Amino acid sequence: MDDLERYIKKRKDESPDFAKTFEQGYEQFRIGELLRQARKRAGLTQEDLAEKLHTKKSAVSRIENHSEDIRLSTLSHYAEALGKKLTVVIQ
What we know:
CATH class: Mainly Alpha
Largest sheet: none
Domain HTH cro/C1-type: 35-89
Protein name: Transcriptional regulator, XRE family
CATH architecture: Orthogonal Bundle
Helix content: over 70%
Mean pLDDT: 90
Shape: elongated
Organism: Chlorobium phaeobacteroides (strain DSM 266 / SMG 266 / 2430)
Low-confidence stretches: none
Distance between the termini: 26 Å
Strand content: under 5%
Number of strands: 0
CATH superfamily: lambda repressor-like DNA-binding domains
GO molecular function: DNA binding
């Protein structure tokens, strides 16, 4: 465990509110990062993807960087533009 992981664990142990908001924030970050990685694996820039989605580069950036309230329909269109299919799993 590195210093950052120890710090996060300590803060979570000390504050249930921090633990809850940290986990929510991490999941939102993770979704955006998964989208970014999928776009890059498809060999597309944000501008390329924006063109496929008939939108602006700034909209793609917003999806990837602020995915806290993203609609399933938006995720589905994003996936389709990458030649992928969106699958939702509840665990």
